[in-house]
From TrEMBL:
This is Linoleate 9s-lipoxygenase 5. SUPFAM superfamilies: Lipoxigenase. It comes from the Eukaryota. It holds the Pfam family Lipoxygenase. GO terms for molecular function: metal ion binding; oxidoreductase activity, acting on single donors with incorporation of molecular oxygen, incorporation of two atoms of oxygen.
């Protein structure tokens, strides 16, 4: 495998290949997400019994399995959603897939896939013109759905602020490694730094930045 369990390391894993930018940066981001989820869930679902008794939570999990993945709903590997630990692990996975994993596999495609002859299958129809009803139907600005008043509880807000600071620290470390010639797969002869898991990005096609949800 690419990693072996090692409880003595911060993330509990030791990478077989140290100079593996995606794996190194992913572990950092994953751990930050999990810490945030752990803190958040501890405010509202602090015990196993609370997880079991909250009807909305159990209903959400039932819908996710039976409607979202109806063809797999009877598989034995599904978490039972009976413990605080299962809730944290599940939410961490969902957030990871919709944000960092999506950024890593999607935002680096444009330099190749944005050139039409490289992907002729995308030319099945004309792109809708800007300002047409068809264009507006396909566009969703996630920033406009942000609610700064998502909670008034002090402790979750403080935890969220710590999460943001942690991501900023991770980005600084990634940038430092991308300029360190010790890491050949970041700052080697080809000089292609790994930017796909930078937490932030300016506007436009930058090949970096982790969005809050799936974004195309």
């Amino acid at each position: 495998g690419m990693a072996v369990k090692d409880p003595n390391l911060p993330h509990g894993l030791r990478l077989v290949i140290e100079d593996y930018p995606y794996a190194v940066d992913s572990l950092e981001i994953w751990s930050a997400i999990k810490s945030w989820v752990e803190e958040y869930c501890s405010f509202y679902y602090e015990t196993d019994s609370v997880v079991q008794k909250v009807a909305e939570l159990q209903s959400w999990w039932k819908e996710l399995r039976e409607k979202g993945h109806g063809d797999k709903k009877d598989e034995p590997w599904w978490p039972k959603m009976q413990t605080h630990e299962e809730l944290v692990e599940t939410c961490t996975i969902i957030i990871w897939i919709a944000s960092a994993l999506r950024a890593a596999v999607n935002f680096g495609q444009y330099p190749y896939a944005g050139y039409l002859p490289n992907r002729p299958t995308i030319s099945r129809g004309f792109m809708p013109e800007v300002s047409t009803p068809e264009y507006e139907e396909l566009k969703l600005d996630l920033d406009k759905r942000d609610n700064p008043e998502w909670t008034f509880d002090t402790k979750p807000l403080e935890a969220f602020e710590r999460f943001g600071k942690k991501l900023a620290e991770i980005e600084d470390r990634i940038m430092t490694m991308n300029n360190d010639k010790k890491w050949k797969n970041r700052a080697g002869p080809v000089k292609v730094p790994f930017t796909l898991l930078y937490p932030t990005s300016e506007g436009g096609l930058t090949g970096m930045g982790i969005s809050n949800s799936v974004s195309i």
